[in-house]
């Protein structure tokens, strides 16, 4: 019998309809019925659940006997492999199928306090789910925005809070076979838990630092064909970066505990603007308080509060009075109650989060011509005398979330072991965009030595120059809300050596208004009955999160253009240009992006550790992409969000994880191929707009046809070796080596070429400027990092710890600069740290 695939179509839903009673009964069967079944006569009524203690329990493999694809890193791993900058990069590199972007080793990344972006199992970097103490800290404001000087937007990041690794007690990463309790992603899940207090008081104060003087830079200049002036070599970055971490943990009373943490990270980067040296800064603070206390005899309550503001002080290069500040991050409060009941184990979670992406900047931007009174551009050898900023802009997101989970534990119905996990989740989110004052961007300066400004010295210089055009961004205040609910359940059946889990996750939100049903199924087969060799398999569907960026844009007022002239050299009034074609946004009637996954794997005890082989295929459909219309009769072009995006991922990975005495060893290698129709939700997927064409291989082609291979997060071959070894009683060395294979890609050269005549949106025509792309090869990289820790006891339990981390130990090329292009690469560089603790 041929069974059609379940793809969300009406036919598939009709196929499922007669199965609803069976599925609901299996997945959400009451625990009481299960226990009544297990209380019958026979050996099953007295059979105890096996407790298997094996070496792999101390490795990052999750140890889940249902085949869930998780990796768990405890505090020991975080301390040994976490960076002295407070990042988790060294830990996350131990997960096969997880890739960092091409800019992760770039020269600019050294001074950037934000976490590196990651792709899990081929998913887009902004379609992962990040959780902190059970609450989502994923950013849905505009995670793909990266232009810090955008007029109508503020750069975002896929994480709304940047949490220092010293505050964390455990990190779990799910890359495949993700349980039904997790949703809102088509990539993977990164779940972070803050630390709990131990049985003894402990405290630490640490300081770590790096600077550009400790970096071995390589400078490359683009190829010169001998014509014109030879290209100038780029300047090497100058920066300093510091981090201070303070923590205290202690038991309270007989069974409670409290943890307090405070971190401050700062980077300073001098830049030359208009011939003067100015300093750009980034600041990231973390404050955390957590209380753990028993509730009665069977409950445990965790209450945690985090505050993680981010601040970036920048300026527009070669523009006067242009300093601006970007504010991000936010705060969160969560409470988790674990309760062991007679028939059910419960977990209740309640939390609230607030974060922002805001800009504080001078109001209005002026592109003055270089004249007698506006001459700072000429003195700095710049074509114009620019001044001002893009004004204040605020973007906020706030959420309240409640979740309940229940677990029956394993019980027996005859020879079959049965376990149910089920629960529900509700959340309310609000998003807001606000510009308090109308912003003007002045352009098209006209030099006129006879112009009369009529007393207006704001955008006109008497007998010198005036502006004939400006863009107007109106004051605006827009908010949208999102309510989301989910029901999920899993039933795990164990019979002899076979364990099968069938699960469903239903979700709905009132923004996309789609009823999403995701199946989650996985199985393991213990070949020899001793858990030494286990086959794993899974078929799963994951639905992504609703992206509200375009909904906010749709509700915003579009900018428009004004013009003016002179009459007898007297400047006139501003008039609205009704014929020009600015943009509006439309977001309506879309499906929820989803990913269908097939997974097959093997786990094997090997040489005192645990070996894992895994094959994963994902087909991602209905992904968000952008369609652009020609100018319509109302004078606007429209950006339409569509579901025309798609991608496919195929990967195979092998990994070996071992804890051999005091030595931790992690070794993995993977091969993958990722195909995609568009890089992110801003990329066009059709040719409805001239701007969607580029110049490649001697001809004008549609951008979407450049190449189906993913441009970033898609090295085919990746391998990683991480090991840490104590040397004597006081010295520990940790080595991490990562290989990224060679691959060919198509990149922008930064040049333009004249294309065809097109409509300019104002009733006339103009020649389009096509961005030039070319094929380039990124060679393989082989980068090693070494961290050495020396611990010196002082008195009692008091110690001083000295650490040195050598990045790019063997001073290898990172190849972040393409062949023939100008740029700077980082070779070997250092971090140093000192810590006092007890």
TrEMBL record:
Domain TonB-dependent receptor plug span(s) in chain numbering: 72-189
Stretches with biased composition (Low complexity): 35-45
Gene3D superfamilies, per database record: TonB-dependent receptor, beta-barrel domain (2.40.170.20), TonB-dependent receptor, plug domain (2.170.130.10)
Keywords noted in UniProt: Cell outer membrane, Membrane, Receptor, Signal, TonB box, Transmembrane, Transmembrane beta strand, Transport
Motif interval(s): TonB C-terminal box: 821-838
Key word Signal present: yes
Membrane topology label: Multi-pass membrane protein
Region (Disordered): 35-69
Keyword rRNA-binding: no
Matches recorded under InterPro entries: Beta-barrel_TonB_sf (IPR036942), Plug_dom (IPR012910), Plug_dom_sf (IPR037066), TonB-dep_rcpt-like (IPR039426), TonB_rcpt_CS (IPR010917)
Record localization: Cell outer membrane
Family in the record: Belongs to the TonB-dependent receptor family.
Name of this chain's protein: TonB-dependent receptor plug domain-containing protein
